[in-house]
Amino acid sequence: MVGYNLKNSEPPISMEDGDSRGYGSLRTLQDCVHCGFCLPSCPTYRVLGTESDSPRGRIDLMKAYANGEIGISNSLMEHISLCLVCRNCETACPSGVRFGWAMDATRARLEEEIHRSVTDRISRRIFFSVFENLAVLRTVMRLLRLSNFLPFMRLSRLLGFSQFSQFIPVTQNVLKNSSGFINPGGRLYKADGNRPATRKVGFLVGCIMSTLLADIDHATLRVLNKNACDVVLCKGQTCCGAMHLHEGEREKAKTLARKNIDAFSKYPDIEAIIVNSSGCGAQMKEYGVLLEDDLKYHKKAEEFSSKVKDLSEFLCGSQLNTSFTSLPDMKVTYQDPCHLVHGQGIRKEPREILRQIPGIHLQEMEDSEQCCGAAGIYSVLNPGMSEQILSSRINSINKTGAKVVVASNPPCIIQYSTRFQNTGDSRRVMHLAELLDQAYSS
């Protein structure tokens, strides 16, 4: 594995008690009974067919590493890093193993123990730091929109920064169609004048959603306003920390979680925290797990998480405003985002909403709960595997005849949009909020 040197493992983690850094999540591995129900659900196992690239095989590796039976090796790192953490295996597991928690904990421990090269440490630090401050992120995105970074990319490859520089062309491509970045400075968006406010909610604008996909955030605000909600963009909010956690930056993820808890707690009159990104929602609903060893924040985290609602979950739990105008005859298919269906258990709500929009014809795709291969930044770090997984999803979409793919997670939206654009495909990818907004405004 390029970018770091390996060293022997530190004393084993106690799977019984965990430790003060939150590795108690590894206890769930003991519940695995090796039944194999998870195998068909795993995207990498479906492609490679190797035990070590299945949930069951990775559980064996994580247990052996946690117990000190094996040290760090290139083989271990390859099998662990190739996991998408899609959590499909959790849905399939009859024993309730929380595979995602254990994988995040394992990656965090590995990140502590490996010796990365200087260039790799610098590139990771720069990359993750950008997402830790939304003001900095907006500035970087504006520069990317205005500049040609091709010379920088060539220089970064020469210096050894090539891994994260691959995000630049993807980002610039998406920015071409993005406008109006959102600044969560405490602004209040009042309910639509025809429907007086009956609820006050907070809204996580997100890092990617408020910049690359800001149009979706704007649509979400309008949809909530149409549904009698006053929406406050709580000042001080930041990235949810999901990307940091999945890439082994556990302490940074904890810091971001605390910042969000503090930011939203300043607005005690909000009854819910609305999230339109399924990956962010899954992360925020599990802040209590992330901060399980933090005596100061654990209870606050659980209270915070109890308020977090996915947009579809929130709208279905209230009286949805169905004063829609009919959309042009539109055949759509729905991609279940992994961290919505497997992380949050939300399946029927988006479909119920879609079926209420006149003009929409929902065509279900085969294996809609299978990962599209995006998985946060996985598609850039593991492009070959991501492409193979995506191709399977494209085949399923083709069979539906749909012209619109509905997804509710930014990596999924970018993954499909990029594929369609690169192949000259006229099909569109839309967020549920965009369809609702269009139905309200047409």
Account of the protein in words:
- The chain is an alpha/beta fold.
- It is built from 23 helices and eleven strands.
Quote the CATH topology of the largest domain: Rossmann fold
Shape: globular
Content-based structural category? alpha/beta
Give the class-level CATH name of the largest domain. Alpha Beta
The chain-level mean pLDDT equals 88
- β-strand percent reads 5-15%
The main sheet orders its strands as 3-5-4-6-7
Please compute the radius of gyration using only Cα atoms: 21 Å
Give the helix/strand layout.
Elements: E1 4-5, H1 43-48, H2 55-66, H3 74-81, H4 88-92, H5 99-113, E2 115-116, H6 118-130, H7 134-146, H8 150-159, H9 162-165, H10 167-175, E3 188-189, E4 199-203, H11 214-226, E5 229-232, H12 242-246, H13 250-265, E6 272-275, H14 278-284, H15 287-290, H16 298-307, E7 308-310, H17 311-316, E8 330-334, H18 338-341, H19 348-355, E9 360-362, H20 378-381, H21 383-400, E10 404-406, H22 410-422, E11 428-430, H23 432-441
Parallel strand pairs: 4-5, 4-6, 6-7, 8-9, 8-10, 10-11
Antiparallel strand pairs: 1-2, 3-5
